[in-house]
Specification:
The chain has a single domain, classed as Rossmann fold (3-Layer(aba) Sandwich), CATH 3.40.50. Helix 1 (19-36) crosses helix 2 (51-62). The longest helix has 18 residues, at 19-36. It has 9 helices and 11 strands. It has helices at residues 19-36, 51-62, 65-71, 93-100, 121-135, 171-176, 196-200, 215-221, 252-255, and strands at residues 4-8, 11-15, 41-44, 75-78, 80-82, 112-113, 140-143, 165-168, 190-193, 204-209, 241-245. The protein is 32% helix and 18% strand. It is globular. By secondary structure, the protein is of the alpha/beta class. A hairpin with a 2-residue loop joins strand 1 (4-8) and strand 2. The strands form 2 sheets. Strands 1-2-11-10-7-3-4-6 form an 8-stranded mixed beta sheet, sandwiched between helices. A 3-stranded antiparallel beta sheet has the order 5-9-8, covered by helices on one side. The structure holds fructose -6-phosphate. Fructose -6-phosphate (F6R) is lined by residues 45-49, 79-80, 144-146, 150-153.
Length: 256
Amino acid sequence: MQSLVTSCGKVRWVHGHDSAALSREAAGMFAEVLRTEEQPVLGFATGASPLQMYAALVEQTAADPALQAAWRRAHGFNLDEYVGLSPSDPRSYHAYMMANLYNHVPIPRHHIHIPDGTGDLEVACRRYDDLLTQLGPPHIQVLGIGRNGHIGFNEPGDSLELRTHVADLTETTRRQNARYFGSPDEVPSRAVTMGIGDILRARRIVLLAFGASKREALERAFSGEVSTRCPASLLQLHPSVTVFTDQDVRPALLRG
Ligand code: F6R
C-alpha cells in the first residue's frame, strides 16, 4: 500500500487508494491497544466507514491467541443509538455491532456498552456518562464523519453538548441514513449520542473517511478553523488524531 503520512500540527494524515488496506492499518491500532493495555477500553462507531476495519479486526483476532485473551478483558463503548429502536431491531446500532464485530470476538457480553434508546432517555444518558467516567475514557475511539461534519450524532448548530444527550437529527443525516430504513421518513428523528466532550476525552482518535461524499466535510473539518457548525472541526484540538482517507484532499492544515 502506498500511504503518505503527514504530520500536520497534531493530526496524522494517512492517505492511500485502497480503503481496505487503510482499514487494516486502523484495525492494527486497535489491536495494539488490546495487546498493551491491561483493561483495554475501545470506542466504536457504526455506519459504513468502520465496516472494513471491523472485518480486519475480526480476522486479526482469529489469527492471534494473545488478542483473543485481550478481548476478554476489554470494554467497548459505542457512540450512539437511535431513539425508539430496541436492541433486537435489526436497524439498531446494537444489532449492527453484534453482527459486524461482537458476535465474532470473545468480549464478555457485560463489557458491551451501547446507549439505550428506549425507556427513560435522561436516565439512560446519565447512566452512560457514569459508566464512561467509571471505566473510560476509551484508549482509542473510531469515528466516521457525516457529510454535514457531524461526529457521533453531534449535529452542526449554534452550540454543542459535552456529555451524552438526546440529539435531534438533521434532515441531511436522516437522508444520509435512509439507505438502512427505506425512506428518510422512517429514520428516527432523534438519537442518544455521546457528547463532544466525551469524544474528545478518548486518548487516541481514528477518523475513517472513504469516498468522494466525505471530501467536503474533511476539507471543512481540517480547514484550520474550529466551529460548532462543523463538529468534526473540534478534532483539531485533540492531541492524537489519525485520519485514514482515500480522498486526495488538501485541507489548509496540511498545506501549512
Ligand atoms: C455512527 C455515527 C455517525 C457516522 C457518520 C458517518 O455511529 O456516529 O457519526 O460515523 O454518520 O456514517 P457512514 O460511515 O455511514 O458514512
